[in-house]
């Protein structure tokens, strides 16, 4: 493993002239990077089959992005952590949630598309970046709680840097193949509008990320205000990411799975509509969790099922105007997230019960059972996160669980979809 970032970059420059050298560097950075090399090799060997099966392959490529997002996300995180400060242990983390949980998102105080890709290398560059960070509100607040060292800053900087590099890797992994396939004429006419939507959402997601960070870099009016990103922008950023993921997953399932026959009866039609309702409620509950994270609302009432021995806490509607309580009062935000989650589990339980005697094909029935099991696990993780005062590993697992639950719901809705004859 490299002892410092400068060693890493000196090794990368001569080695990347060949695929073999690139693989060698990736394996030095972290073993899981070998997955990226395997993906690159796949792209270089499918050219001949694309000529005859271009449309089918581009569908598989769209599906592969769902898996690729997860793989690249893990890879970039681990590489960034392993090449970070000498005295800080590397942690393989789920970047989106952990960047927020570790309060790392405000460590990079500007946004430069290309220049950001090269982190500081020398001690002088690190010190210069640290001095810039010191001029912003978060450092002033953090230093009032505990003195921040340069090593501490390097850790949070690399967390945010890894998060940004992950986002750009996803964008490059989509845009470059899309342009190549378009030039070769391998994109079907029906798929072109979808690619335009995907590309637009990817760009919008990047914009939302910086728009969110920018809100945390501004001076707050009150002397006791804690520097943090806007919970509205955080929820928008998460919601946009979940929407993009859902579109990729749905498109991938359409191309990779063969529809199973469903009886054309009223019972199945009812389940089909209810499956979309379950998917929507899971999405809304996950977005409400972003408000919890943005306001640190998970720390206001750490008991369950009651909130400080009350079903309805006294400060539930203490903000004026009253509508602000829904989005800005930490008590109300936690209250809403709790009951949205409980409603989601109840709906999933009822849905599972309705499906017991329904004439569903094997894949759909498997999806129903997986949905119930994951809902119960996600509820357990949520309660554990609350009762243990939001430790980062448990909270990150809970946040990841919401994406897994949504994925299963999308899979189920896809299995129950009406297939044109």
From TrEMBL:
The keyword Magnesium does not apply. It catalyses: Fe(II)-heme o + 2 A + H2O = Fe(II)-heme a + 2 AH2. GO terms for cellular component: membrane. Pfam families: COX15-CtaA (PF02628). Coiled coil: none annotated. Pathway: Porphyrin-containing compound metabolism; heme A biosynthesis; heme A from heme O: step 1/1. This is Uncharacterized protein.
């Amino acid at each position: 493993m490299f002892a410092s970032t400068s060693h890493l970059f000196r090794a990368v420059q001569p080695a990347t002239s060949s695929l073999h050298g690139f693989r060698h560097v990736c394996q030095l950075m972290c073993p899981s990077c070998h997955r990226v090399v395997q993906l690159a090799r796949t792209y270089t060997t499918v050219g001949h089959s694309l000529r005859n099966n271009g449309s089918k392959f581009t569908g598989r490529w769209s599906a592969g992005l769902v898996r690729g997002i997860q793989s690249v996300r893990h890879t970039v995180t681990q590489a960034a952590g392993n090449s970070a400060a000498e005295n800080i242990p590397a942690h393989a983390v789920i970047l989106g949630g952990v960047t927020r949980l570790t309060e790392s998102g405000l460590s990079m105080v500007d946004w430069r598309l290309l220049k950001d890709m090269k982190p500081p290398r020398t001690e002088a560059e690190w010190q210069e970046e640290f001095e810039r960070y010191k001029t912003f509100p978060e450092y002033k607040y953090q230093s009032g709680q505990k003195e921040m060292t340069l090593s501490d800053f390097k850790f949070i900087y690399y967390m945010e840097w890894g998060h940004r590099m992950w986002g750009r890797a996803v964008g490059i992994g989509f845009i470059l193949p899309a342009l190549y396939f378009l030039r070769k004429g391998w994109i079907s006419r029906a798929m072109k509008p979808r690619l335009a939507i995907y590309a637009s959402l990817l760009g919008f997601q990047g914009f939302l990320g910086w728009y969110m960070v920018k809100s945390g870099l501004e001076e707050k009016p009150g002397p006791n205000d804690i520097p943090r990103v806007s919970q509205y922008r955080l929820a928008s950023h998460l919601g946009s990411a979940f929407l993009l993921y859902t579109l990729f997953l749905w498109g991938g399932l359409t191309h990779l799975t063969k529809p199973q026959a469903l009886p054309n009866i009223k019972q199945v039609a009812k389940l089909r509509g209810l499956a979309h309702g379950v998917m929507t409620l899971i999405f809304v509950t996950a977005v409400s969790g972003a408000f919890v994270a943005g306001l640190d609302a998970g720390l206001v009432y750490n008991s369950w099922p009651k909130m400080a021995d009350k079903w309805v806490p006294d400060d539930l509607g203490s903000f004026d105007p009253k509508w602000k309580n829904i989005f800005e009062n930490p008590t109300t935000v936690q209250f809403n997230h709790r009951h949205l989650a409980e409603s989601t589990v109840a709906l999933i339980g009822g849905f599972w019960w309705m499906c017991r005697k329904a004439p569903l094909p094997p894949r759909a029935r498997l999806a129903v059972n997986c949905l119930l099991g994951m809902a119960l696990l996600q509820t357990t993780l949520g309660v554990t996160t609350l009762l243990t005062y939001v430790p980062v590993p448990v909270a990150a697992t809970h946040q990841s669980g919401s994406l897994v639950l949504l994925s299963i719901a999308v899979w189920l809705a896809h299995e129950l979809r009406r297939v044109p004859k």
